[in-house]
Amino acid sequence: MHNPSPIKRRVSRKIHVGSVAVGGDAPVSVQSMTNTETCDVNATVAQISRLEQAGADIVRVSVPSMEAAEAFGRIRQQVQVPLVADIHFDYKIALRVAELGVDCLRINPGNIGNNERIKAVVDTARDRGIPIRIGVNAGSLEKDLQKKYGEPTPEALVESALRHVEHLDRLNFPDFKVSVKASDVFMAVEAYRQLARQIEQPLHLGITEAGGLRSGTVKSAVGLGMLLAEGIGDTIRVSLAADPVEEIKVGFDILKSLRLRTRGINFIACPSCSRQNFDVVKTMNELEQRLEDVLVPLDVAVIGCVVNGPGEAKEVDLGLTGGSPNLVYIDGAPATKLDNTQLVDELERMIREQAAKKQAQDAAVIARS
Q1: Which of 8, 48, 109, 177 is the most exposed place for a label (fewest CB within 10 A)?
Q2: Looking at 102-116, 195-209, 251-265, which range is the least confident one?
Q3: What is the pTM of this model?
């Protein structure tokens, strides 16, 4: 289970959102967005801290007013993760958050105002080393494009994006990323495919307004998975009508499944059947909850019987095969037998030991290099 990903990623320009590189040879980053009232500084800081703890590389914050901009400044002082300010219509908000330490500006140049206002924002971004994200959404296409195409289409999304790109090109500002999001999987995927062939900048992937936790996870996994498997995408946001922390978890699960990122435990578990020697579903639920804090990349297999258990267990860092008694493999070799008494406790202990061992090994390699 330690094979490298076969995906050949699209070559794109590298930009930096604070300390996080996006594009080029940088890992695909995972983002989320706060859903607190931005002016409630304490609540927003608390949510950002939870997102950072879950592994968020970048967090976006909506800044709809100048009051929210001032609150953003206070938030910026209290968190470490790079922050993107989501701004529409009022260019002065963009100028203010730039002064207050924003790491990226999410704008649409087309709705910021006239050319002088766009230039003021871009000049400030250039002077302060702040990248811009152009965000196009099927739900808010320009009226003339809606009239031209009749309805949102991939071509309409791309035409809208390229208009905004032209604004920045005319101002000789190349440090931006682009998204062309739609709630329809096929529309979004095709739009990203077309855009990827026409610009060099990194792409921010997302299926917008994907739905609730279950349905939104499925739509995002399908859409983002299709693009990432083709090498398209430099940073992702899973949009869920749920706790934003779930967006980070799902995002990393998508990347882990494609071997594009390694963070925490990659569980391999059978769906269980009457051959199981222990309650696989209950065991997995408990292990996932208990081990969320383990960030060391580990492959762990939990298989209920001996049909597929030994084969899976031999390919992972730690594997459990149901039997009489159950057998635990460590680094591909049989290690110890366990009965069902205190099974989860013992597995948690061994997984944590394996994680600590691997962390020490990785640290030793880094020290020698």
Answers
A1: 8
A2: 102-116
A3: 0.91
